[in-house]
UniProtKB/TrEMBL annotation, chain A:
<dbReference type="InterPro" id="IPR036928">
    <property type="entry name" value="AS_sf"/>
</dbReference>
<comment type="similarity">
    <text>Belongs to the amidase family. GatA subfamily.</text>
</comment>
<feature type="active site" description="Acyl-ester intermediate">
    <location>
        <position position="175"/>
    </location>
</feature>
<dbReference type="InterPro" id="IPR020556">
    <property type="entry name" value="Amidase_CS"/>
</dbReference>
<feature type="domain" description="Amidase">
    <location>
        <begin position="22"/>
        <end position="463"/>
    </location>
</feature>
<dbReference type="InterPro" id="IPR000120">
    <property type="entry name" value="Amidase"/>
</dbReference>
<keyword id="KW-0067">ATP-binding</keyword>
From TrEMBL, chain B:
<feature type="domain" description="Asn/Gln amidotransferase">
    <location>
        <begin position="333"/>
        <end position="484"/>
    </location>
</feature>
<dbReference type="Pfam" id="PF02934">
    <property type="entry name" value="GatB_N"/>
</dbReference>
<dbReference type="InterPro" id="IPR023168">
    <property type="entry name" value="GatB_Yqey_C_2"/>
</dbReference>
<keyword id="KW-0648">Protein biosynthesis</keyword>
<protein>
    <recommendedName>
        <fullName>Aspartyl/glutamyl-tRNA(Asn/Gln) amidotransferase subunit B</fullName>
        <ecNumber>6.3.5.-</ecNumber>
    </recommendedName>
</protein>
<dbReference type="InterPro" id="IPR003789">
    <property type="entry name" value="Asn/Gln_tRNA_amidoTrase-B-like"/>
</dbReference>
<dbReference type="InterPro" id="IPR014746">
    <property type="entry name" value="Gln_synth/guanido_kin_cat_dom"/>
</dbReference>
TrEMBL record, chain C:
<dbReference type="InterPro" id="IPR003837">
    <property type="entry name" value="GatC"/>
</dbReference>
<keyword id="KW-0067">ATP-binding</keyword>
<keyword id="KW-0648">Protein biosynthesis</keyword>
<dbReference type="Pfam" id="PF02686">
    <property type="entry name" value="GatC"/>
</dbReference>
<comment type="subunit">
    <text>Heterotrimer of A, B and C subunits.</text>
</comment>
<comment type="similarity">
    <text>Belongs to the GatC family.</text>
</comment>
<comment type="function">
    <text>Allows the formation of correctly charged Asn-tRNA(Asn) or Gln-tRNA(Gln) through the transamidation of misacylated Asp-tRNA(Asn) or Glu-tRNA(Gln) in organisms which lack either or both of asparaginyl-tRNA or glutaminyl-tRNA synthetases. The reaction takes place in the presence of glutamine and ATP through an activated phospho-Asp-tRNA(Asn) or phospho-Glu-tRNA(Gln).</text>
</comment>
Amino acid sequence: MHSLTLTELNAGLARGDYSARELTEHFLQRIQTLDPQLNSFVSITAEQALAQADAADAARARGEAGLLNGLPIAHKDIFCTRGVRTSCGSKMLDNFIAPYDANIVERMRAAGAVMLGKTNMDEFAMGSSNETSYYGPVKNPWDTSRVPGGSSGGSAAAVAARLIPAATASDTGGSIRQPAALTGVTGLKPTYGRVSRWGMIAFASSLDQAGAMANSAADCALLLQAMAGHDSRDSTCVARPVDNYLGELEKPLAGLRIGVPAEFFPADLDSRIADQAHAALAELERQGATLVPVALPSVHLSVPAYYVIAPAEASSNLARFDGVRYGYRCDNPADLEDMFKRSRSEGFGAEVKRRILVGTYALSHGYYDAYYLKAQKVRRLISNEFARAFEQVDVLMGPTTPEIAFGIGAKNDDPVTMYMADAFTIGANLAGLPALSMPAGLVDGLPVGVQVIGNYFREAQILNVAHRFQQATDWHRARPAVGDDA
Amino acid sequence: MSWETVIGLEVHVQLSTASKIFSGASTAFGAEPNSQASLVDLAMPGTLPVLNREAVRKAVKFGLAINAEIGKRSVFERKNYFYPDLPKGYQTTQLAEPIVGAGVIEIQLEDGTRKNVRIHHAHLEEDAGKSLHEDFFDEQGQGMTGIDLNRAGTPLIEIVTEPDMRSAEEAVACARKLHSIVTSIGICDGHMAQGSMRFDVNVSVRKQGDPKLGTRTETKNLNSFKFMEAAIKLEVDRQIDLLEDGGTIEQETRLYNGDTNTARSMRTKEDANDYRYFPCPDLLPVIITDEDIEALRAELPELPDARQARFSAEYGLSDYDAGILAGDRAVADYFEAAAQAAGDAKLAANWVIGDVAGQLNAAGITIEQCPLSAADLGQMIQRIQDGTISSKIAKQVFEACWNGEGTPDEVIEARGLKQMSDTGELEKIVDQVIADNATQAEAFRAADEGKQKKMFGFFVGQVMKLTQGKANPQQVNALLQEKLKETPGA
Amino acid sequence: MALDPQDLARVAHLARLHLDPADSDALAERLNRILGMIDHLQDADVGEIEPMAHPMDMVQTLRDDTVTDTDIRTTVQPLAPATEAGCYLVPRVIE
């Protein structure tokens, strides 16, 4: 069963090939057996999962099957789940049993999805390798000495190894697309505001966007159909009708204009990655799309702009972790200041503290204009360049990442090298555009991802492009070493 | 040497909304600790703010009431600092683009002097929770602080004045004027004791004629006009003493203790003011259209200044009395209702400013809680007018009504307070008084006119004593005048 | 721009993070590498461009002034490190 995609499993459930309970038991068994090699889950909620599966089977029997009825999924541990620990990969929240459900959790449950557990992640989503998690690094199922990418590394590894057919994830600077690329799965970051942020623990509020990971674009379309929509509890969530994402999947690509920014193929890019991306573009061209060279001249400033804006917002967003109302408090504080400082220093990991310090500095007196305001102006500059590109083309494409999966520990000494892993993905976050990464080949036996960026709210179009590509290729069916048993 | 005091105010006004500015929790006062702290108020991870429409409307109304420019695009920012009663680690407030821009109010001092005070701006923000410093101890007996977040997220406008005030009296007049405006337009309940209005005063002194402002201090969180006045006077004296002794003023935040009438410097940290403001990414720009503004303007009631002018013109009240009555919307409404019921505005004004205000003050209650309705007060005044009771008896009636004995007519009836206007009966009493006090009556007749005037009151008093005050004073006067001049037995 | 030890101490205090003097140099070195990368922003010619705070050009929606949240104290207070009589407890605040 686990070699099937979410879409295929959905059809199997509908046909009665198996029950939701059987499916849940099967995937729980896989998690039990295989996850010790990957460390992709931080919590497994077997009991609730079986109860939800039974409820889904009963609903189907009554003819009330929802969009995701009986399908096993996992939630990234950044999403609040009532009654279940929601740690955000941090010691700070190791004891935090969320008192409420995130909007995305509510919506997926309402659609009948069965939650099997919570996936590991970089602490507070700050990382590109999943090494900053309090619960230890996640391993890449293609090569367990390598990272799965981050911050949604747990969701990516679990989906890649077929421990779960689909998982939710979040993307602030590439946290869905980069690990999707490094583990060979399909990951979708919707337009900013398309999916509610209510209940998603904030890293950088103006960049954070919830999304999905699965083994095909069609699966992502199904997931987005369930998770998208207005939520009055999130002021930045748009009140705009949700498109029919499944309806456009098969649309032929004839007439499609694909913009290829030269900036996504820099001179020092690994030529093997470039070749795979070009091969993917050639396939789409074969299907009738036109390739158009476009320019995003300021996109090289994405990383510096992001590393001001995201830490600045994070320094403020993470101020609530003060040891007063929930979360970690240090032992025997000498006084109030000591309680604040030690609770935060002991509760947060090194990368989180670095980003808080950078963000605090960027906002502090005398530096605001030079750092924060400048970064916001560069953000608009980059956003305007994307807007101009979309006057000429329908989608933009290039490699998702400049590198394939790197070794665990390889970039620990230099944060800046690590940050460059998101060089191609950050632009879409700064502009708020929808983007996905899909598997498009292997280099040294490791997956290469290609990114498709769409115009605002054109998720249906990028899913269509990815789906047509996946109809003609089978990179998305390639299986990693861990879990390759069927 | 002569010193000039310079004062500016920052006034926190709690907006009287049902729910909080960014959450659906109740703002009701006096609930069990933390029973009105929602997920958002507690800053639970993953929660987000959504702005309360009514808070925006009330802030705009204030702007319109002071003829300020309304910020058609206003932006919420985060003011970052750590404090245990500030759950998010930042206060959501406005800085660069506030909802209310510059405006002006006119203040009036007791001697009738009027003066303009400029309002720099007013912005929307959320209140913090409360820290309770008593009653809590850990296992080792160390004092702990308890945090109650019921108040966290209560909508506030912070009104910032220019440093236009030159004395404690002016500052208090300004504070009273703001109180009058916000209660009149119905955006704040004005309950000072519950913290609905809190004042921070910025005080500096300079030599008379010096164009440069002196170093200022800020005394925070004064919640009564009395404390505000005392705290300013104390701070002005402290600064002048210090400067005259050759010292310098430190820019600092001070805490005033009303019980002891003392103040002290708050522990200051070198970093205290690096709040790292930046636009709140969870909230979007608030847009107010011209249509919104006109609709809100149409909702505004008559403002205190206009009402004061009307009271003077329409009812012939003195400027001062009109000002007192118009300054509080509830008092003004009460007065107008009483005046209408009484048919005599001046008498109604005297009663409201005098006995009613006095009793309310003594009981520590507001006019909304006044046990005597405006209609009752009007009825009582009518009874004075139509001669049923005297002004003196009216005080008794007033007290009885206050104590819940019924309407004025019921009290007059039940207590038999109806004035004796039957001349026959009164005549008998007057005769008896003169007969009982024959010696005094003799002396009266023998005295010259000047002396008679002094002696007359004795007879009036005797008549009133016998009638238990129920005699109509005019009739008593007339009868006595007539009878005393008669020779006995004639 | 670069952080010196004094800046680092000031920023750490603002962020209420305890700074171990033994790690301070290594931390400053890493932060300065990040700041060095960020300094590329200074090359950008942004001219008169408006700062961008939100990816969407949207305006704030307003909610009705109704009480929708009820008392959740018994649900949420077990999450707190220390409570008493309905209050969250912290070491005594001295103003």
